[in-house]
Structure formats: C-alpha cells, structure tokens
Amino acid sequence: MKGSSIETLKATKNQLKLLKPITWSVVRTPLKQEELEKAERHLLRSVQAEAFGDELKILIRNRNRSTSEWMQLEKSSALYKLTPLVDEHNIIRMEGRTEKAEFLPFDLRFPVILPREHHVTRMIVQNYHERFGHGYRETMKNEIRQRFYIPKVGTVVQKISKTCQWCKVHRSKPRVPRMAALPVQRLQPYRRPFSSVGVDYLGPVNVSVARHSEKRWVVVFTCFVTRAVHLEVSGSLTTQSCLMAIRRFMNRRGPPQEFFSDNGTNLKGASKELTNLINDINCDCADDLTNARMKWTFNPPAAPHMGGVWERLVRSVKEALEAMNDGKRLTDEILHTSVTEAEDMINSRPLIYVPQEIAEAEALSPNHFLRGVSPNEPQMVSPTPLPAEALRDVYKRSQELAQEMWIRWIKEYVPSLNQRTKWHGEARALKKGDLVYVIEGSKRRSWVRGIIEEVIAASDGRVRQAWVRTSSGLFRRAVAQLAVIEINDRW
Asked: What b-and-e string marks burial along 255-276, b requiring 16 or more CB atoms within 10 Å of the CB?
C-alpha cells in the first residue's frame, strides 16, 4: 500500500512539471474623463472639509432652508466676505457678482475656494506653473482665477516660482557678496608714480611692413595711485618681447614694487590658444621679474571686475587710438607716434569733476604727478645758471608743489572712491560641496557644472573666490562667475 501511494505521488509530481505556468496579462487603459472629474471633486471636498469644516456644515444646512432661516457665518471666518455657497457636489464656491452672465463658463462665475496654505493648493499652483512653461507670474494668476479663488494668490505663485527646482537650475545667477574695499596699493600717497602697476595687452594692430602686413600689440601699464598709463608696443606674443616691453617701461618710469595682471585676456575674438599663450607669457615674466623687491600678483581667470583699475583704461586707450585712426595705411613709425599721443591724451584727463564756478586753476590730472606741472602750463627755463640759493628755492618750491598735489589728491580724488557702485548687500557665502554653474560666455547652454572644492576667504571674511572642480579639472574662479544651483526645500 505504501509503495503504490509513493508511486502515485511521483506520477502527480511529474504531471505538475508538465503544466505550463499561468500568466496574467494586465491591460492598461487611460483614465476616463468622468473618473478624473470624480477624483478631483473628492480631492477638493477633502481639502475644504479640512480647512473650512465648520463653514461647510453651515452651508450644507443652509442649502435646504429658506433665506430667512439661514445661519450666518462668523465674521472672523475666512469665507465671510466671499458670499460662499455649496454646489450639488458639496464643494464650496464663491458666489460672485457675475452669476447672471450665463455665456461665461460656470467655473469662472463660481470659482472654487481653496485655502492658501494647503499642500493641495500648492500642488495645483505648481501644476499651472509647469503647464505654462515656468513663465510669467501674471499669466499663472490669470489662468488660476479661471477656476479657483485662492486668497493672496500672488504670494502663493511667488513662493512656487522661488522653490521650483527647474527655475533654480535654469535661472540661477551669481550671488556676489558686498563689494570689497579698495586694495591698499590704490590708497598710498606720497609714492613715486607706477610703484604699483597693472599690466594688460591690447590688440592686435595690423601694420604694413614692406609689402606685407604684420601684427603688433600694445602693452598697457597702469599706475594704481595716480591712474596714469604708460604704453609700449610689443612686436609679438612671446615672453622675450613682453620682457623687453617691461624693461623699456622700467627704464623710463623706474622699477615698480608690484605687478598685477589677469590670468586671461581682454582681446576681442581671442581663441583659447591665444588666452593660454598670454597666460604663459605673464607667468614667465613673473618668474623672471619676481625678486625680494618686486612681486607679481595674478587675479582669478574670467574676473575682469577684479582688474577694473586697468581694464577701464584699456578701453580708454582703444577709444583714443580709434579716434586717431584716419583709415590710412599704418606703419610702425605711425603706430609708435599714435601710441605716445594716446598716452599723453589719457594722462591729461581730469581725475575728478571740477565745476566752472570753482576758482581752482584746473582739475587734477595724472600728468601733474608725472611732470610736476600742468601739461598746458609752459615750463620757464632760465637762460643763465641760477645761484645756489636760487636753486635751493626752486627745489623747495618744487617740493611744496608736489606736497600740494598730494594734498589735493587726498581731499578731492580719494572721497570719489569711497562709495560702492554695486554689490551693496550681503549674499549667502559659497561652501565646500555646493553645486554651481561656471559661467562661460553669455549663453547658458555653454555653462559648465562644477562642485566647490575649496573657498578662498578675503581679509574681511567674505568669500569672493573658490576652487571649482568640473569635468575638465580644477579651476580658480571668482564668485561673480559661479551661479549656485540650490536644492529644492520644502515649505
């Protein structure tokens, strides 16, 4: 008996193995309009019951009573001034003054009342925000009013726009801290002009040599204190040519204590190779010229605002050279002459505005510090040698004039530097690990994503530079070129 039962179980087991597994096929069908409307009504009823529970009970009771038997809402209720009513689905609507305009949609005449702070209300506004392409807030408010009444809907729309992650990513902008104080190199009187110098390139300028055309470059040296410029023509973009231009500058103006320059270039239409070439030239010159009495300081790449002291004068040199361009053939001799004329023109400009009503002789200019006198004032040369006492008087008079110029520089020019022109407020400081966009060019699609590896705090504690790691490597960038991509926070 036992043997037969065991054989029976084995036969049954073999038969089960031969059976095919049962497969269930699920057919997905889209929701019908009636189902969506039913779900929406249920959701609206639950929201209103949660926010306006007492008012909903009163309005449902009033629906089956005459007007004289109505129960009035409390004046402290949020629905008191909205003249609410309940429709056949027990949804609270606002009974507006356009109820007789039957040609208008029903939802427009009787909009559904929703609480402002409810999560479902924010989800509805978020849906409108996404449906209309994250566009204008007024468009969103107008579309919402076609169906719903939300108290202070503008505030809700503004919060949704600010917390939308898509908007944060695609509309992020740099958050720059308060403008830094001027460097001490710009506020040191009684120093020789060109003690602190900013260096930059300008060009190229095409000149005719024999029967062919060659390129020339203009090296702009800017004095930090007197705002004077010195221009030198460079024959090529090589380290030796740059060093020779710097040598000519130092032979005429004296060796400076510190050089400043960009890591990039302001050359119009410059390629990446040209930018790297000028960067290498500056680094090589810094290696050759840096010593115990002279140093070279670099600004972060792509941060022209940190070199505004010379960038603005580079623009002035361009304008001066353009004004003297008569469209004729340009040679090396003409270029050198034009460069010196542009230098004198810029150094004769007034450092401050002086009204005509003031009895002062003329405004202070860089040439006052370079020449000791006004460019328009003729220098008196004595035809006979002066005695020793007269020479001492002349020297004393020259020292008094120099002292007077520096006093005017302190009283008239320095106060004009005191006010900040932009970046007046504070901003959230960058932190290690922040996800940012590295701004490269004017088009957002060319921006590169990166992560903050290290922040560089200034002397006042504010972060204005940072090291950013991108897919291309590690770079130092100014905060003005970094747009933070925030993480979406819940309310």
From this structure: bbbbbbbbbbbbbeebeeeebe
pLDDT at 10: 62
Burial of 210-236, coded b for 16+ CB within 10 Å and e otherwise, reads eeeeeebbbbbbbbbbbbbbbbbbbee
Average pLDDT over residues 322-341: 83
Closest CA to 312 of 242, 233, 227, 231: 227
Side chain identity, residue 480: A
Quick one: CA dihedral 187, 190, 195, 200, positive or negative?
Answer: positive
Residue type, 294: M
Give just the sign of the alpha carbon dihedral 191, 192, 194, 197. negative
Model confidence over 421-461: pLDDT tens digits?
A: 888 788 888 888 888 988 887 788 888 889 999 998 888 88
- Residue bearing the bigger pLDDT, 18 or 467: 467
452 — phi, psi (to 5°)? -70, 120
CA-based nearest residue to 440, from 188, 174, 239, 201: 174
Please answer whether residues 310 and 222 qualify as being in contact, where contact means their C-beta atoms are separated by less than 8 angstroms.
yes
Kindly give, in sequence order, each residue whose CB lies less than 8 Å from that of residue 40, ignoring residues fewer than 6 positions away: none
Amino acid at 482: L
Q: 83, 147, 314, 360: which is closest to 217 by C-alpha? A: 314
Cα–Cα distance between 105 and 108 in angstroms, integer? 5
CA–CA dist 340, 346 (Å, integer): 10
Task: State the Cα–Cα distance between residues 75 and 116, nearest whole angstrom.
Answer: 19
Distance CA 93, CA 85 (A): 5
Q: How many CB atoms within 10 Å of residue 341?
A: 15
The predicted pLDDT at position 223 comes to 92
| CB 97, CB 88: distance < 8 Å | no
Q: What single DSSP character describes residue 440?
A: -
pLDDT tens, position by position, 98-125? 888 888 888 888 999 999 889 999 999 9
DSSP string over 141-199: HHHHHTTEE-TTHHHHHHHHHHH-HHHHHHS--B---SPPPPPGGGS--SS-TTSEEEE
- Give the span between the Cα atoms of 172 and 485, in whole angstroms: 6
pLDDT of 378 strictly over 50: no
Q: How far is the C-alpha of 300 from the C-alpha of 296, rounded, in Å?
A: 13
Interval 118-162: pLDDT, tens: 999 999 999 999 888 888 888 888 889 899 999 989 899 999 888
Can you tell me the distance from the alpha carbon of 56 to that of 115, in angstroms, rounded to the nearest whole number? Answer: 13
Task: Name, in order, each residue with C-beta under 8 angstroms of 101's C-beta and a sequence gap of 6 or more.
Answer: 109
